[in-house]
Amino acid sequence: MGATVCDAVTEAPDMTVVAQVDQGDSKEPLIQSDVVVDFTHPGAVMDSLRWCAEHGRDVIVGTSGFGEDRLAEIGGWRQGNRIFIVPNFSVGAVLMMHFAGQAARFFESAEVIELHHPGKADAPSGTALRTAALIGAGRRSAAMPPQPDATRTGLDGARGAAVDDVRVHSVRLAGLVAHQEVLFGGHGETLTIRHDSLDRVSFMPGVLLAIRRIGTLPAGLSVGLETLLGIE
């Protein structure tokens, strides 16, 4: 993803790549930048964000691994820069999450299945975590009761991870890029919302949009490309 972002920025007529920094490299070259884009690793990203906050660099984050604990930690920092966490830069994926949040109010059951390539370091994906959070918020806004589930015995992991009272299942399979299904069930009907990214270039329009418009966001933490798409 980092290499793909550098290619996209290089091809953009209004942008210039001023530095490329990998894990373990000095971050000093980033001082030259107006905006830092972080696609590193869940184990390295927090150090990068602290450095950006200390040096007043606005930063856009496409790295996964941001649950409520990390978001709360970042939200508690005192900084004058902008930290923009984006679970998914694909416009289609953002719409999928938005639609899921809307549908959550109308169905008694909801589960998420996310499917990625086997090189992905974290599970569930950031997109799945964000989707579950939006579904949970939608259910709470409608005062929905707990989801029906009579399971009392089972192998560990068989029912997936519980995220905001939504079951999330992770698949890691060679040949995949990034895919997600959101399943809703009600009285005699089901609804499936699915998104597929077939190539990493699907994320680049969202990355370039975030770079161009991060200056319109308030200082501090912002989450989700939907804040720039007018579909909050």
Basic shape: globular
SSE pattern, N- to C-terminal: HEHEHEHEHEEEEHEH
Q: Output the CATH homologous superfamily of the largest domain.
A: NAD(P)-binding Rossmann-like Domain
- The parts where pLDDT drops under 50 for at least 5 residues are none
What is the subunit arrangement here?
Answer: single chain
How would you summarize what this structure contains?
By secondary structure, the protein is an alpha/beta fold. Strands 5-6-4-7-8 form a five-stranded mixed sheet. It has a four-stranded parallel sheet with strand order 1-2-3-9, with helices on both faces.
Question: How would you portray this structure in words?
Answer:
The protein is of the alpha/beta class and 232 residues long. It folds into two domains: 2-85 and 200-229, Rossmann fold (3-Layer(aba) Sandwich), CATH 3.40.50.720; 91-197, Dihydrodipicolinate Reductase, domain 2, CATH 3.30.360.10. Helices cover 31% and strands 22% of the residues. It has seven helices and nine strands, in the order αβαβαβαβαββββαβα. It has helices spanning 2-11, 45-54, 68-75, 91-103, 126-141, 204-213, 226-229; strands at 35-38, 58-61, 82-85, 109-116, 161-163, 166-172, 178-185, 190-197, 220-223. A five-stranded mixed sheet has the order 5-6-4-7-8. Strands 1-2-3-9 form a four-stranded parallel sheet, with helices on both faces. The model has no long low-confidence stretch (mean pLDDT 93).
